[in-house]
Amino acid sequence: MTKSTPSSKLYRIAYEAYSEFTININRCSNLKEVGKTSQRHLKYLFNFHIIRLVIEQNDRFLFFSINKNKISYGFKRETELMDFEKELYQNGIPIRTAEIPDQYIDGFIDRSELVNPSLWAWGLDKNNRKILVSLLADDNLPFSYGDIRILKLTVDAFEEKFHEIYLKEQLDRKNSSLSKVIETIQSQNSKIGKILNEQKQTIEAGSMKIDSQNQKLLGISSMNAHDVREPLSRIQGIVQLFDVSDEKTCREELIPMLKTSAVEIDDTLKKVIEMATKELSELNTKA
Question: pTM value?
Fold first, then answer.
């Protein structure tokens, strides 16, 4: 039997801890849960006082900072990044410095508690997005070059989970917006139905001389009601597809189809009002 070297044992322990970390982080459904999981498990992977990730998301940056006592996350513009992060974002050159910005440690740790602190930082590219990861260590909690490999694996797990949470939030917002659009369309349809019904009652209360005009108006009502129901049914079908479609399909296929149907309903409603108003005007003129 081959004996394990101390180094191989350390690697095995580290990867067992990493496996436990990924299992638990995959169960998280929001950033707060990710933070709590990280506080429990990252200390078994490598030493740090503070770890901070900044992930590019369209025109904004998701930042995520934790230490043993605090979790902080949110969105920032590029102009709000720390100076070393802006430099890292532009040139991608790794940083190791003893100059620790006050902004980095404020609210996380008292500077007087640090012994020969070092700030480590890297710029990574993952799935066409830039990721800035930085870590504060010192003599009490030392970080070494040998820890970089497991750190990058950890960043991969973070990036995948953050992207999953981001997409879910985006989809929830879109579903909310779509629900409001459907409610608006249904409300407009109801108002049009009410208008047409009132016009019908007005015409029926008139004399037999305007019977032909009354029949014509009812014909317009029937025709346009069909024109409204057809695109509305398509919209309702498209909305159901959102639950079983991925982000790309939603963005590139379903949303354009939804917009087209909404425009069609809007055009139809305008025609209903225009035609009904015209016919009613002619009826009043002949009465």
Answer: 0.58
